[in-house]
Structure formats: structure tokens, C-alpha cells
Amino acid sequence: METIDAIAALTALGHAKRLAIFRLLVVAGPAGRMAGDIGDELGVPGATLSFHLKELVHAGLITAEPQGRFVCYRAEFEAMNGLIAYLTHNCCAGSPQAECAPVAAACSPGDACC
Amino acid sequence: METIDAIAALTALGHAKRLAIFRLLVVAGPAGRMAGDIGDELGVPGATLSFHLKELVHAGLITAEPQGRFVCYRAEFEAMNGLIAYLTHNCCAGSPQAECAPVAAACSPGDACC
DNA sequence: CAATTGTTTCCATAAAACTAGAATAGTGGA
DNA sequence: TCCACTATTCTAGTTTTATGGAAACAATTG
Description:
Chain A is of the alpha+beta class.
């Protein structure tokens, strides 16, 4: 992931409503969620929701797939993992220190996160 | 990590100069870097640098330790890993899918990142 | 075709963030 | 004490972003 893409992704996620939308889609997984469904769950007016969804799509964090009258939004897991890789890349100049815990630890044992 | 902390961290990182500062400190590791050193490397005026450093400290992503006339800034690796955990937590509702690559893959083999 | 439903675009207002010169404060050396 | 140096705070101007009602658009249903 390029720096400019990482900035776009981080800027998009650095907002309460957009982070909530993204997290909702991450938990939803590949099945995704419909736009109206997201709006109902988060209590966001249509116009505002559409604005934030567009921002997330533009940042490459989610994708939109029209299905008739509905639009299904899905998290872009590749972008998420790319962002994580960007943040941690070459950490400690390549000499892992005690202070610099393994990224793998982000998922604690027993945690079902992927 | 709480949602409010994740938003603060993501907002802080969603800016070109702050992301550059944070990445510099991540690569520097526990040794950290002096404020002026960072300003020289990134070509940012003092007042602007100080503003962004304060934002990062406030977001919990870095720490400041005065050393005489100088101030040493260090990345807060625990916060970084906490943020990554927040983003990926309960992904795919706990049923990892093919689309949802393991976070561990963020570090490709041979990559010295921590 | 008209009505209905889901979604987006338009637009004006409001709020927040960015920038950097100038002034200020703290430290260490002469 | 005075000075040079490092860093921060103050301040003001500029830019960017967020919000949501209203209107427009698209697709299904009657």
C-alpha cells in the first residue's frame, strides 16, 4: 500500500460514523450489508450516510454492488490488511524489540478474529 | 482499545505529516527521535511540527520525554497494536473467510517487521 | 404508466482542522 | 548574568470537512 492510499484510508476511518460503518461491514464479512440496513442500524440520515459511504468507497476500504434498488456494501479486507502492513512495516528498523509486540498478538488466543 | 480512542488514533494518523512523523518513530523504535531531528528530516516548520506532535501525543500514539533542552518522542507500540486489534476484532462475525486474510499475513515472510 | 421505495446528488450552513510567523518559556554554556 | 538554542504556545487567516433537508434519480410493483 502506498502512503497516499494509507492516508486516505486512515482519514476515512478517523470519523465516528465512518468507523462504525466500516466495523459493521468487517463484522458482516463477505456477505456485506445493504445501505438502508446500515442507516437503520446506525441511525444516520440517508444523505449523510451516502456521503460517508462514498468517502469509504473512495478510500478503497469498502465496495458497493448495486442489486436492483438496493446497494450492497462490503468491507475490502485486502485494503484493511494492507493498511495494517503499512503501519507496522520496518518497525524498529527491522530489529524487533520487546516494546514492539508482534502484530500477530493483535488477535489474542481464543479470539475468533481472522 | 475503546472506540473513542480508536477514532482519535485514526484521525491523528489520517494526515500526511502526522503519518510521516509516526512512521519515522515506528521505524526508529524504542530509541525514539528528537523533535528538531524530526522537523529537519520532514521539513516541517517548528510551530507546525509542535502542533502535530501534540496531536499524536494526545491520541496516545507517541510519548514525549524532555531531555534537557531537547524532547525525545517515541512511538507507543502498544497503542499501535491495540488499534490494529480494534480494526480486525470479530471480523466476519468470528467465522474467518477466505476473503478475510489472517492479520499475521500483514507481515510477509522474510519481512523484518515486528 | 403512476406510485412506491431505496439511494444519491445538490446545496447552504456550520464546525473543525491546518498553517506558520511572532512571541514566550526552559536549558545549558560562556 | 547574558546569550544561543530548542521547543512550545499564541494568534489569525485559510482551507477543509460535516450535516441534513429537499430534490432528483433508479428500479420494482400495482
